[in-house]
Amino acid sequence: MVTKTSTGKGKLIFHTEKRKKPMKLANLNVRTTTNKGLKISRRKKFTDRDMSPEEKSNIQRDFRDEKPPIKIEFDKYLDDGGSSYIFNTSCPGIRGATDSVVKMLKPQILTMKDRSLAQAYVNMNNKEALFHKDISDHLPLDVVKVYKTGVVDKKTYILMQRMNQINLGHVVKKQNKISLKNKVKMMVRLSEIIKNVHELGYFHMDIKPENILLTKSSKILNYRNGISKPNDKFKLKLADFGSAKYIKRDLTLEPNEAMGTPEYMAPEQVFGTHNTDYRADIFSLGMIFYDMIYCKRARDFRPFISEEGELDNYALYKYVSEFEPKIEPFSTDYIPLENLVRNCLRKDPNDRYQTMEEVHNGLSIFYDNYLR
User: Fold this and answer.
1) In the 8-state DSSP scheme, what is residue 359?
2) Three-state secondary structure string covering 105-128
3) Are 244 and 131 in contact (CB under 8 A)?
4) pLDDT of the chain along its 372 residues, tens only?
5) How many alpha carbons lie under 13 Å from residue 89 in its C-beta half-sphere?
6) CA–CA separation, 264 vs 52, rounded Å?
7) Which of 345-348's residues contact partners 24+ apart within 8 Å by CB, and which partners?
């Protein structure tokens, strides 16, 4: 039985009372519902825009009221993060934060008519700030660095390192111009990052290319000339811990939320967090590997959306929960790589790799034996 349905940026967020009951799969752009399914309204691509003097004054006034006061200079809107805004900022008073960003809960969330949904967004943002700061303190080279978190005017904010406005999703779109060697090198690094996060006691629950950011020193993409020769010093960092779970907490005490991005989420994720663990991250990472190796996505949702934008809820739910991609022959020279991706993408979590360390070790051995 579905007790509550809510939407987030590219994520499914729904609450259930019992396991293995069909749930409405909510897309980030869902605005209305129909008897036939969900009505999808496509959101226009967000573009940078400068902040007006009034906007700057209002938000800086909020920060002046914080104790102790913190001076942050706001420049422009960088992104619309679903329930949050992301601002380009400078904070000279904090070491390293002269070129930074602030991710802050949208003010309109606090005035939503659906109070339970508003509280769910507030809780998600509070949890993200807590988890991201802790992971950043322990793994500054693996995740986007967080300088400070806090609450101003009832809105949670995260002051963090500014990255390139380039994520792995941009690389995936033009990956046919990247050599297999450099692809596998990225795969090795990704598995190492997530392995370290797991060892710290967290699992991410929303691994996707858009949550893997490139640092400013990375030179993988060149928009004028297509793909430039990848720099061996490229740096990848993991971001967005709004869906993350702490493995040492009793998850059965939390709402049974099914959260993730449909293109990359593991089949068991549609049944909620009570039935999901770190092996969901292994599946999601395997989906990214599939994208990178075969230059296409393993899942295709177009058949489930009508020309009017209506979503066949039950068919899509069934498709995600029963999905196990077919691994096509890639190359007779690289059969171990095919097997590695296949073992990440097993439908049953018990049939997959059981730890991210196994994935990382397998990729490292493949790289050393075949590509070095």
Assistant:
1) H
2) ECHHHHHCCCHHHHHHHHHHHHHH
3) yes
4) 333 333 444 444 433 333 333 333 333 332 222 333 333 333 444 456 777 777 777 777 777 666 676 778 888 887 776 788 888 888 887 887 888 999 998 888 988 988 888 888 898 899 999 999 999 999 999 999 999 998 888 889 999 998 877 888 877 777 667 888 888 999 999 999 999 999 999 999 999 999 999 876 555 444 334 444 444 456 899 999 988 988 876 555 566 666 778 889 899 888 776 778 899 999 999 999 999 988 888 887 777 676 666 666 677 777 888 887 888 777 778 899 999 999 999 999 999 999 999 999 999 999 999 988
5) 30
6) 37
7) 345/283, 345/286, 345/287, 345/290, 345/298, 346/283, 347/267, 347/322, 347/323
Write down all domains in the chain, each with its CATH number in brackets.
168-371 (1.10.510.10)
Helix orientation angle between 279-294 and 356-366, rounded to the nearest 10 degrees = 30
Question: Cis (ω within 30 of 0) for the bond into 68?
Answer: yes
| Its pTM surpasses 0.85 | no
Helix (H) or strand (E) holding 5: strand 2-8
Q: Cβ neighbours of residue 319 under 8 Å, at least 6 residues apart?
A: 299, 301, 304
**Which sign does the torsion angle of CA 343, 344, 348, 353 carry?**
positive
DSSP assignment letter at 330: -
Residues 6+ apart with CB under 8 A from 250: none
CB atoms within 10 A of CB 36: 12
β-pairing, 100-105 vs 212-214, is unpaired
Give, as one character, the DSSP assignment of residue 143: B
Q: Give the tokens for residue 177.
A: 């111009």
CA 136/CA 263 separation, integer angstroms: 27
Judging by beta carbons within 10 Å of its beta carbon (0-12, 13-18, 19+), is residue 254 exposed, middle or buried?
Answer: middle
Q: Work out whether the CA dihedral 284, 290, 292, 295 comes out positive or negative.
A: negative
Q: Which residue's structure tokens are 């004054």?
A: 57
Distance CA 325, CA 345 (A): 7
- Report which residue type is found at 75: D
CA distances from 27 to 14, 162, 216, 327 (A): 11, 28, 31, 27
